[in-house]
Structures are given as C-alpha cells and as structure tokens.
Amino acid sequence: MKLLSIADLVARWPYTRQGVHKLARNADFPAPVCTVSQGRVKLWELADIEAYEATHAEVQSEHFKQSKIYGFYKAVMKGEAGKTSA
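Above: the chain's sequence. Below: its structure in token form.
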C-alpha cells in the first residue's frame, strides 16, 4: 500500500498546499487512511487518490482547473452559485 501526503498531492497536481487542503475538505474527497505526527499529517492511499482523479479532471490538468474556476466565478456574477436545480 502506497501512502501520499499533502506534499505528494501538491507535486502531483496543479494546486498549492492551500488548494489541496481546500479540496480535502470536500465531501467527495477520499478520507485519509491514517494520520501521523500527532494528527498533523494526513495520509491517503494511492488507489483512493487515483479513483478521485478519475472523476475530477481539474486535479489532473491546469486547463480543467482554470475552466472550473472560471465557470464558478461566471455563475457568481450571474447570481447562480449555490443554487440547486429542482
């Protein structure tokens, strides 16, 4: 079993440490398999991260990341962010 830390995810994706921490707070982000260093360092299993990457193109590509950010801000400007369709 290969484990990845935040630093590994930063090296893997076009995100800063802060950006990865924000992603990790999302409900669909995989749960860490363990924590070390008195709970300060979270570790994720590689297989869980690869499954997440398969469904989230923005973590693999700067282009997809920027288009997702642009789409969010465009929705905010239109007043549509946070609304759900019924």
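The helical segments are 6-12, 17-24, 46-55, 62-78.
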